[in-house]
Structures are given as C-alpha cells and as structure tokens.
Write a structure and sequence with these properties.
mainly alpha, elongated
Length: 511
C-alpha cells in the first residue's frame, strides 16, 4: 500500500506544477526556413565546423522554465566514476556525522534527564495529573491530526461530508414538505371555517328577512284592522247622528230652521266625512306607495349590506392573506436564520481555509518572485554570454584565419614532437592504468561489500516499513470506525451510516 501523503491547500489553476514544466506552444521554436551556414576553422586542436549566426534571429525564441533548465543542466553533466565515488563518500560521511550527532544528543539527554521513580503509596499531585491529562490530550490530538493527513482518511472525510450534506438536504426537503402539508391543512381548516361562517351568516340573513316580512305583514294587518274599525266607528257615529237627527226632528218640529241648519251642518259633516274617507283612501294609496318605496329602499339596503359583507369578506381574506404572508415570512426568517448560522459556520471554515491558502499562496508568490528575479538575472547573464560568445567566435574566426598559414608550417614539426611525447606518455599511461586498475578493483570489491550491507539494511528497513504500514492501516481503520461511531452517536440515520461504511470499505480496498 502506498504511503499516505499530506494534502496541501489547492493552488491557483494557472500555477505550473514543479515536476511538470508547462511550456506555451507559442514559445516553441519556429521552423527554420533556410539551412544554417557553416565554416571550417583550423586551430591547434585540429579542424572544427562553426555555425555562422543568422543576422535575422528567430522572432520568438524558446524560453524554458527554471526547472527545465536545471534538469537539462544536470543531465548535461556527465557523472564519472570518480564523481560517483566522491558522492558515495560524501553521503557516507554525512550519514556518519548525523549518527554521531544523534548519539551525542541521546547521551546528553540521558545525562540531563532526572531519573524519577514512583514511591510506594504515593499519588500524582493535581499539577501532575493536569499535566498528564494535557499531555495525553495533546498526544491523542496530534495522533488524530496525523491520521487526518492520510489520503484514505481525507477521502473518507469527503464521503462523510457529502453524506452529511445529503442528509441535511433530505431533512430540509422533508421539513419543507411537512410545512407545506401543514399550510395546506391550515388553509383547508380556514376555508372550512369561512364556509361555516358564510352558511351561518346566510341562515341569520334568511331569519332576519323572515322576521322583517312577518313584522311588515303584522303592520299591514294592524293598519287594515285599524282602518276598518275607524270606518265602522264612523258608520256607527253616522247612524247615531242620524238617529239623533230624527229624534231632534220629532222633538223640535218648531225650530225647522235650526233643524235645517243642523241638516246643513250634518251634510257638511257628511261631506267632511266623505272627504276624510277620501283622504284616508288617498293616505292608504300613498302609504302603499311609501311601503313600495320602503321595500325598494330595503332592497337597496340589503344589496348595500351584501356589498359591505362582500367587502368585509374581501378585507377578511386580505387579512388572512396578510397573516398567511406574515407566517410565511416568519418561516422564511427562521429558515434564513438557520441558513445564516450554517453560512456563518461555512464562512468560518472557508475563512480558515482561505487563510491557510493565502499563507501558502504568499509563500508561493515570494518563491515565484524570487524565481522570476533569478530567471531575469539568468536571462541577462545568458544574453551577455551569447553576445560574448558571438564576439569571441568572430574574434576567434579572425585570429584563426590569420594564424592558419603560420600554423600550417608548424604542424609538421609539432606533430613529430607530439608523436614522440605521446609515445612516452602512452608508456607512462599504461603503467599508471595498471596501477589504477589494481586500486580500482580493490575499491570495487570494498564498495560491493558495502552495497551488500546497504541492501541488507534496505531489506530490513523495507520489512520495518511494511510492519509500520500495517500498523498505520490498523490505526486508520480504527480512526474511521471512531468517526462512524461519532456519527451514530449524533443520531445520524442508519441508512446514511451504512452508505458511509460502504464507501469507506471501498476506499480501504482500493488503497
């Protein structure tokens, strides 16, 4: 299983990775349209072919990143056997020096550390218990943080976080559906109450109309009875007056004139009675008209009352709508408050992540600024070196052309002397090569023995790493199990916990 590596905060997307140099296609070399010109130069070392620089350079020269330049520079360096031996010696010396320093520190700590032995019957003091508990907490916290750096734990944290988000979202959806259902039930209850009130109002209105009709009928009946009684009384009174008139005629025959006067008065009275009857009839007709007008006015009042009732019902509907809107606003406010609390928590987490990211980006920017500065200095140096190289090539070409003729005359003499020297040098080289071969074989045997020892140490270290990895896997599994138990203690639904366990098992099996 691969070693777990700590996951750093995400960098900006336009930042090139250190191990993957990104080169823009526009920065690549363009194809040369015409072949380069070469000249032949003769010097002491022999003949060389030199490329003549083009007076019209490439429009967009290739610019390599620093990492690519360093890689090419390192690859251009040929590591000889001597360099390898020196590197091995330096590594061995550093290893021995580190081991000696470690031994010295260990001895120093063993000397300065005071030996503490627990006496029988003694207990830890409050300060010691507090220090012990604090140390145990710090150890547990550091162990948990170290476990959190494992890639499997990070992926499991992502699964747990996604499951929590899904559980919260499902709970919010269920809560929303419950609220909508409650609102629908409340609306149905209000509609039922309004319908009952409307039916009750209609029944009361019908009863009121019946009562008014009954009162009107009683009033008309009473008025008719009263008019009939008045008519009867008038007729009785008229008969009584006629009887009295006859009695007066019989009793007072002598006073005819007075009787005639009384007769005239009687006629006048009768005329008056007839006028009164006519007036009563006219009053009755006028009362009928008034009653009809009152009926019309009553109908208008009823219509007005119905309109006012409709207006009141509309106002009540508006009040209910406002109450419903206020209730919805309250629900929205509670949701917003809950969302704000979640947003505040998410904002705090995001601020912490942004703070860490800004710190990392600040270091990266400083590093990039330093790299850009070094790159600029390097480009300036390369530019100066190119110009110097071009000048040196031109100067060397001029000097070479001037010395060609002189060198040609000295070549024969120099070659003969050189041949004699080479013969002597070859003889010495053979002797030195034999001696060097013997020493080299001795060193190779020693290095082979050291390599065998190193391979044994590496094998033992690999076994230790495998054991350590197994122990680490057990710790990771236990850490993930504790996370699942914590979720179960937080009353997370079992179906989400089963889903998390399934994903975590897949992550562990994949690793």
């Amino acid at each position: 299983m691969s070693q777990s590596r700590s996951k750093k905060p995400s960098m900006p997307t336009n930042r090139p990775k250190p191990h993957m140099p990104v080169i823009d296609e526009k920065m690549c070399f363009k194809a040369v349209k015409k072949p380069k010109e070469f000249v032949t130069a003769y010097d002491v070392q022999g003949m060389r072919r030199l490329m003549v620089p083009d007076r019209n350079p490439i429009d967009i020269p290739g610019i390599l990143p620093k990492s690519e330049f360093e890689r090419l520079k390192n690859q251009a360096h040929i590591v000889t056997l001597k360099d390898r031996m020196m590197m091995l010696d330096e590594a061995e010396q550093k290893k021995n020096a580190l081991q000696r320093e470690s031994e010295k520190r260990k001895e120093f700590l063993q000397k300065v550390q005071k030996k503490q032995t627990a006496k029988p019957g003694t207990t830890l003091s409050d300060v010691e218990r507090e220090a012990k508990s604090r140390n145990m907490y710090l150890l547990k916290r550091s162990f948990d943080l170290m476990q959190e750096q494992d890639n499997r734990v990070k992926r499991a944290n992502g699964v747990i976080l996604a499951t929590k988000c899904r559980a919260i979202r499902n709970a919010q959806i269920a809560e929303k559906e419950l609220i909508e259902k409650q609102l629908q039930e409340e609306n149905r209850r209000l509609d039922l109450m309004m319908e009952q009130q409307r039916q009750k109002a209609m029944e009361e209105e019908a009863k009121r109309k019946q009562e008014e009709e009954r009162k009107k009928q009683n009033y008309v009946t009473a008025l008719s009875d009263q008019m009939r009684m008045n008519e009867i009384e008038r007729m009785i009174e008229a008969e009584q007056k006629e009887e009295e008139s006859r009695m007066i005629n019989k009793a007072f025959l002598a006073i005819q004139q007075e009787e005639e006067q009384k007769l005239r008065e009687k006629k006048e009275l009768q005329q008056k009675i007839r006028n009164d009857l006519k007036k009563a009839n006219d009053d009755l007709e006028r009362y009928k008209l008034i009653q009809k007008e009152e009926q019309r006015i009553a109908d208008l009042r009823i219509q007005k009352f119905m309109q006012e009732k409709l207006d009141r019902e509309m106002a009540r509907d508006q009040e209910l709508a406002l109450a419903k809107a206020a209730k919805e606003q309250e629900i929205i406010r509670m949701r917003n408050q809950q969302q704000r609390s979640q947003d505040i928590k998410a904002a705090m987490d995001e601020m912490n992540a942004l703070r860490i990211q800004e710190e990392v980006e600040r270091k990266w920017r400083e590093k990039e600024i330093a790299a850009a500065k070094a790159k600029k200095e390097q480009q300036e140096m390369l530019k100066l070196e190119r110009e110097k190289q071009i000048n040196d090539l031109r100067r060397a070409a001029a000097i070479t052309l001037a010395r060609d003729e002189e060198d040609f005359h000295r070549v024969a003499k120099v070659q003969r002397e050189q041949w004699e020297k080479e013969m002597e040098l070859n003889k010495r080289k053979k002797e030195k090569a034999e001696q060097h071969r013997t020493e080299l074989l001795k060193q190779i045997n020693e290095k082979e023995k050291e390599r065998i020892v190193v391979q044994k140490e590496k094998f033992e270290e690999a076994n230790l790493q495998q054991i350590e990895q197994q122990r680490k896997d057990l710790h990771v599994k236990e850490h993930l199990r504790q996370k699942i138990e914590a979720l179960r203690n937080k009353q997370l639904p079992e179906r989400y916990i089963k889903d998390i366990e399934h994903h975590i098992e897949g992550i562990i099996n994949t690793e």
